């Protein structure tokens, strides 16, 4: 078996963490007899600088022909929000063009990282939740207007857009603890009232074994940090999901720890850590690569159908954390922080410990 994976490092720390995600991906797949061919392309600010477009045709064509896309992050102060062409447009267009309507953002916390969360340890123990964020609709993609002192962003959803993401989320809930929290603002927004209606119908009709709860987004924001263990799967619209998952990163110890998978109807997906380009860290070699590496694990599971390889990579990240290889965002006081590359090497070492002898001989020299 052979797979083509598009690698889009993007801007800021994006390329630094993606390089390690790609290397660990190749090794974890090799462990399961699958060969991966990596092909790099431009997206975001670096693509604007080199081609004028945040999503060049070539990049989109590569992504369409690949089994999956591994992405770092886009954006930075060089490309301000008021510019006409912006890096973020490239990412949004890619999600939309590939039809990736369901963004999976799992949140757990490894015991070694617990001290770096500002939340009390007893709140965090055993947290295991999954946010399914709608990714190709809502206010992100509605008409935008600016007329003098007036600005407008339209938020619209169709029942079909809501239904498909709720179905996806309910499917994941079914494979987990069978609890689904649908998050909206139905006391104010019409799109939310439709959201609630559709979610209720889908669950009542096709997922009677899944317990559905509706929660208002403001209340959910509070419950998330007050009682994170009370959640199993959360499904919500694009903007709410964006905001709630940065908040949820506090439950995970650092935003550098959280992975994501963006999926559509088929196996092709886009995999990226939930963090941004962290311009303040770029070029210093100190960014946390674990969220990017765990995104590569999600790629193995969801796009390549290699749950064993995914598990091996996740176990390797856990092993690196257990060894105390912690980047500065999670190291805490009194511990010497690991560099980005040291964290990547620790994961590769842990993966190799799990490799059968045969594969060890096939490894390139510099990797031994
Ligand atoms: P950010 O996620 O880049 O950074 C927020 C904070 O988290 C910063 O303090 C940063 O140093 C820290 N951080 C982020 N990733 C880290 C990592 N891997 N290791 C250690 N610390 C990390 O968010 P921001 O500063 O609001 O945004 C910067 C730029 O990134 C903006 O242009 C924004 O549009 C873009 N952005 C892109 C994506 C994406 O490409 N998916 C996601 C979010 C933000
Ligand atoms: C994310 C980011 C993006 C989003 C930006 C960069 C467009 O914040 O992936 O969470 O808002 O979806
Ligand atoms: Mn975000």
- State the separation between the terminal residues, measured CA to CA: 24 Å
Rg, rounded, reads: 20 Å
Show unreliable segments. Answer: 358-368
Query: Could you say which overall geometry the principal axes of the C-alpha atoms support?
Result: globular
What small molecules does the structure contain?
nicotinamide-adenine-dinucleotide, 3-isopropylmalic acid, manganese (II) ion
* Mean pLDDT across every amino acid position: 95
- β-strand amount: 15-25%
Counted beta strands? 12
**CATH architecture identity of the largest domain:** 3-Layer(aba) Sandwich
The secondary-structure class comes to alpha/beta
Order of strands, widest sheet: 2-1-3-12-11-4-5-10-8-9
Assigned CATH superfamily of the largest domain: Isopropylmalate Dehydrogenase
Highest CATH level, the class of the largest domain:
Alpha Beta
Count of the separate structural domains: 2
- Tally of contiguous helical segments: 14
Q: How does the major sheet shape up?
A: 10 strands, mixed
CATH topology of the largest domain: Isopropylmalate Dehydrogenase
């Amino acid at each position: 078996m052979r797979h083509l994976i598009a690698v889009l490092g993007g801007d800021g720390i994006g390329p630094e963490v993606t390089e390690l995600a790609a290397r660990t991906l190749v090794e974890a797949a090799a462990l399961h007899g699958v060969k991966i061919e990596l092909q790099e392309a431009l997206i975001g600010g670096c693509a604007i600088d080199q081609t004028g477009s945040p999503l060049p045709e070539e990049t989109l064509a590569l992504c369409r022909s690949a089994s999956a896309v591994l992405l770092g992050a886009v954006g930075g102060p060089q490309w301000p929000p008021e510019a006409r062409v912006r890096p973020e447009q490239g990412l949004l267009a890619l999600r939309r063009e590939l039809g990736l309507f369901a963004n999976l953002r799992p949140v757990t916390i490894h015991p070694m990282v617990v001290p770096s969360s500002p939340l009390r340890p007893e709140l965090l123990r055993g947290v295991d939740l999954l946010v399914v964020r709608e990714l190709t609709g809502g206010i992100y993609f509605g008409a935008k207007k600016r007329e003098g002192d007036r600005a407008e962003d339209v938020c619209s959803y169709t029942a079909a857009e809501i239904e498909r993401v709720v179905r996806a989320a309910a499917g994941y809930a079914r494979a987990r603890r069978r609890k689904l929290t649908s998050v909206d603002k139905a006391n104010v927004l019409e799109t939310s009232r439709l959201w609630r209606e559709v979610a209720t119908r889908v669950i009542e009709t096709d997922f009677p074994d899944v317990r559905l709860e509706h929660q208002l987004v403001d209340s959910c924001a509070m419950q998330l940090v007050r009682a994170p263990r009370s959640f199993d799967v959360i499904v919500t619209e694009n903007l709410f999901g964006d905001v709630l998952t940065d908040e949820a990163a506090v439950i995970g110890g650092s935003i550098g720890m959280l992975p994501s998978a963006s999926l559509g109807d088929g196996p092709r997906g886009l995999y990226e850590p939930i963090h941004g380009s962290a311009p303040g860290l770029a070029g210093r070699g100190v960014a946390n690569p674990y969220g990017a590496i765990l995104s590569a694990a999600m790629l193995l599971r969801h796009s390549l159908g290699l749950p064993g390889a995914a598990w091996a990579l996740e176990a390797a990240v856990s092993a690196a954390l257990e060894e105390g290889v912690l980047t500065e965002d999670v190291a805490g006081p009194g511990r010497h922080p690991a560099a980005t590359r040291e964290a990547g090497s620790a994961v590769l070492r842990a993966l190799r410990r799990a490799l059968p002898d045969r594969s060890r001989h096939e490894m390139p020299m510099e990797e031994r």
